[in-house]
Design goal:
By secondary structure, the chain is of the alpha+beta class. Helix content is 64%, strand content 7%. The strands form three sheets. Strands 6, 7, 8, 9 and 10 form a five-stranded antiparallel beta sheet that branches. Strands 2-3-1-4 form a four-stranded antiparallel beta sheet, sandwiched between helices. Strands 5-11 form a two-stranded parallel ribbon. The longest helix has 35 residues.
Length: 742
Amino acid sequence: MATFLYRLGRLAFRRRHFVALIWVALLTLAGVGAASAPTAGSASFSIPGTEAQRAFDLLEERFPGSSADGATARVVFEAPDGQKLADADNKAAVRSAVKELGTGSEVVSVTDPFKTGSVSEDGGVGYAQVSYEVSGMELQDASKEALEHAADQAREAGLTVEIGGDALQATPETGSTEIIGIAVAAVVLVITLGSLVAAGLPLLTALIGVGIGVSTITALADALDLGSTTSTLAMMIGLAVGIDYALFIVSRYRAELAEGREREEAVGRAVGTAGSAVVFAGLTVVIALVGLSVVNIPMLTKMGVAAAGTVVIAVLIALTMIPALLGYAGRKVQPAGAKSKLFGRGRKVSDASERPARPNMGTRWASFVVRRPVAVLLFGVIGLGVAAVPVASLELGLPDDGSQPTSTTQRRAYDLLSDGFGPGFNGPLLVVGDAEGSDDPEAAATEVTDEIKGLDGVVSVMPATFNKAGDTFTITVIPDSKPSSVQTEDLVHSIRGTGAGLKAGTGAEVLVSGSTAMNIDFSQKMNDALVPYLALVVGLAFLLLIAVFRSILVPLKAALGFLLSVLAALGAVVAVFQWGWLSGLMGVEETGPIMSMMPIFMVGVVFGLAMDYEVFLVTRMREAYVHGETPGQAVVTGFKHGARVVTAAAVIMIAVFAGFIGSSESMVKMIGFGLAIAVFFDAFVVRMAIVPAVLALLGRRAWWLPKWLDRALPNVDVEGEGLRTLSRARADEEDDKELVRV
């Protein structure tokens, strides 16, 4: 591996014009594709293998033209204090709004609250439901404007009007904090690499990689049914790993220059050593992201594969474009230890060598850990354990209008409906009956309705509605609890249990669907998939790390450390987004259940990113140990050469992820915070404290590998031993040529 990458780096350095041209051409091609691609709508959401999805599919089959996946809007009307909606003027205003709502070209149906009985008992609140033939993201601006205009007309008549549902769904905005995150990354790069030119290379290549990845996703979004969150996730991860991977290679290049090597040779060695670590670190991230497909939720699979593709691009750019740009930069990228005019008045390496070198911070810290491994280990484990305590009260769910900021019309509509009709009205359950095998479908529907009315937690049950064929019916059930509550989940299970018992007597199969039931099934599926996913991802990465480190205990320690950091990060997410700690600082206006996909998503992404630092830091230790240092000395050497760069990489990744906390979408905000705090825990507590402490305690046993396994494993040569052999062979060849000339 190291020898191949060494040759690749030298080739890219020599053929830099060709390499740069290829990447610029790919960026241009992706950009043109994105610009010319049709506007993509929201990604379809399906959960194969669940009851809610089977009911949804049955509705599409038996109720053709109902646009079950189309956008909906609930226009909620509230009469002024002391008045009722049925008052003459108010009623006229409502019916005028309903009439106007039905004129849109994309409208399928509009309900009149006075005809459907959609008015609260006190007569103060009512709603009209508008159904559209397309999804919220596909809805034309004219339809949205007509919806808002109808609401404005009713407001002018004195009514309070708010609009809920997904018809006004907007593309999420990340806000200025994303730019701040990139700016922080730029400052860290300048401080770490000592010059604007060197710092600019990782930023430039990361932006090119993200540009290619996100543009490709945008170009294929309509054809592959990719949602806006897919490109946001790809941008988030692509920026973070793209900067980090380039940083490691540039840093190793400067270190090779400091040892007196020519620039082409230094590039080759940097790509051969640090590049090997980049390849395997990238592989762990790709395994974790592609592994999301085991959950069998198409939306999550597409998000994982798209983000993994962006990571692959980041790896390829780091291995090829960074060497090419280093060739262009020439002497503007100085050796490690040489300060630029920006930071030290141009002091040269030779100036620094004239006085005794002072141990850097990484060396001093590693020496302390090696002397006090037990204390450091206990402190790190206990600290992460305390941070993980909130996980015990973790509640999972999916965000709805009730989790929106109170400044939005969707949230105000949600609150009006809760006040007027009860908390369960915002999460009605749709019971679908397949009566194709029933002798008397109407009697079956009546029996199902009566049974559901007798269940605890039910406020009302609407009469059954049949399709034209008369073989399928739907029943709307209003719970007495809010959609995300445990009581509503229990009611869903109770209805399903009742339906299973009724099938034998009525011949009708009863299924529960609707957005609330879909959320419940989604959460359950995520929980069921967590252990298999964890076993697959950790297992594959464990085997990969065994080959990289030629050890059993080092990969095992890496996996256990990851579990500590991800549990601590989940605890922090619960504390902020569920308990409300520091919620104002994070811009969280409404606390509630944690997004259902958050645990499994964090396991996948954080594991891949955590292994980045494990590979980059521990390969330096492995390299020192293989070349004759004692285990304790190898730990110190690894920190001497890698701690500064790993610290900078972690700060950059934290800054990039934290930049997405400013997003207007709660899912992106939660992911950004969760990944940022997870990287902080993993990089600075696990990799910087627990890892060296454990290695110091294990000593030589850390690098033990059974002989039979050592023979069976491929030699990936991350340490670059093949480069030393190649150098010796070249030196011998030069000596032979010299002798011949003599």
